[in-house]
């Protein structure tokens, strides 16, 4: 069974966040396939935070509230174990310290701190599950390239 890390770009499409939902139909179809195949879907804390920020930046107040409520429902379901994905644990201080030390090298490659944290979660999952496929499900090509078969 494969392990899939759900990126912010995917979560925004699932939640139908305006201006970040251009591939919603394709994402929902893929999500149905992943659920049917009983894939383990992980929702990184970084994706939760970034998605919340994108929602808060919506210009229309009514739309912002509606999307924010969908967001809260999905994250609460993830925390309760009733969503199709499982939230990843919050980083401890030592992990954050280690990741910050590598950030300048990633920043030179155009990789932001949010993407770095998702990449580090991918690497962690690869270590935990050496015999399973681990990949980042993302619309962003640089993150989608992380796929250990």
Span between termini: 11 Å
Class computed from helices, strands and strand pairing: alpha/beta
* Spans where pLDDT lies below 50 across 5 or more residues: none
Q: Determine the mean pLDDT.
A: 95
What is the CATH fold-level name?
Answer: Rossmann fold
Quaternary structure: single chain
Assigned CATH superfamily: 5'-nuclease
Order of helices and strands: EHHEHHEHHEHE
**What's the architecture in CATH terms?**
3-Layer(aba) Sandwich
Name the shape in a single word.
Answer: globular
Side-by-side strand order of the widest sheet: 3-2-1-4-5
Structural domain count: 1
Write out key terms for the chains shown.
Rossmann fold, globular, 149 residues, alpha/beta, five-stranded mixed sheet
Provide a brief overview of the structure.
The protein has one domain (about 5-149): 3-Layer(aba) Sandwich (Rossmann fold).
Description:
It is globular, with a radius of gyration of 15 Å. The longest helix is centred in the middle third of the chain and has 20 residues, at 61-80. It has a single domain (3-148), classed as 5'-nuclease (Rossmann fold, 3-Layer(aba) Sandwich). The protein has 149 residues and is of the alpha/beta class. The chain contains 7 helices and 5 strands, in the order βααβααβααβαβ.
SSE blueprint and pairings:
Layout: E1 3-6, H1 8-15, H2 24-36, E2 40-43, H3 45-56, H4 61-80, E3 85-87, H5 93-107, H6 113-128, E4 134-137, H7 141-144, E5 147-148
Parallel strand pairs: 1-2, 1-4, 2-3
Antiparallel strand pairs: 4-5
């Amino acid at each position: 069974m494969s392990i899939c890390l759900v990126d912010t770009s995917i979560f925004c499409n699932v939640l139908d966040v305006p201006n970040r939902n251009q591939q919603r139909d394709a994402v929902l179809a893929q999500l149905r396939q992943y659920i049917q195949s009983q894939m383990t879907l992980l929702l990184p804390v970084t994706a939760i935070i970034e998605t919340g920020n994108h929602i808060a930046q919506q210009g229309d107040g009514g739309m912002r509230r509606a999307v924010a409520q969908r967001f809260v429902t999905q994250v609460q379901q993830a925390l309760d174990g009733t969503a199709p994905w499982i939230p990843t644990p919050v980083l401890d201080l030592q992990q954050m310290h280690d990741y910050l030390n590598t950030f300048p090298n990633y920043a030179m490659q155009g990789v932001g701190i949010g993407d770095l944290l998702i990449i580090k979660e991918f690497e962690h999952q690869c270590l935990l599950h050496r015999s399973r496929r681990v990949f980042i499900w993302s619309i962003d090509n640089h993150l989608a390239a992380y796929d250990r078969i």
